[in-house]
Amino acid sequence: MRLFTITFVFLITACFSSTVNMKASDSTDYPVPLTECPTPEHYDNPPNKHRTRPLIKYCTITHSGISSSSFNPDEITLYEVCGTDGNCIACFPDESGFIDFIFSSSGEFEIRLHLDECILRGFISL
């Protein structure tokens, strides 16, 4: 019984003396599939009129920014965060504001990345 008590006290002490960091670490990343949609300026004259299926591109959102092998993230001109109903919640002209918002939020959102000739749309769960 004495060994059980000592073991129990040791385990309780170890649990209370250790801390667990619940905040997302810098290694947190969110892979996001994106659907390419024409911008309003390109509805009448889309870049590829013969495309029958939407073009899917991929990006990864991390604390350090957006990376992609499907498109150049430097060409993004506007970052939008929308609710799942499509209503815009926040809009950012730069990547840093967008990243700060993403990593300080929780829930499911639609993101829209505006490029010159298209808008990339996808969903992210935080």
What would you say this structure looks like, in words?
With 126 residues, the chain is α+β, with helices and mostly antiparallel strands. 20% of the residues lie in helices and 36% in strands. It is built from 2 helices and 7 strands, in the order H-E-E-E-E-E-H-E-E. The chain has a 7-stranded antiparallel β-sheet with strand order 3-2-1-7-6-4-5, covered by helices on one side.
Please give the largest β-sheet: 7 strands, antiparallel
With strands numbered from the N-terminus, the spatial order across the biggest sheet is 3-2-1-7-6-4-5
The helix tally amounts to 2
The backbone outline, from C-alpha atoms, is globular
**Compute the gyration radius: what is it?**
22 Å
Short description:
With 126 residues, the chain is α+β, with helices and mostly antiparallel strands. Helices cover 20% and strands 36% of the residues.
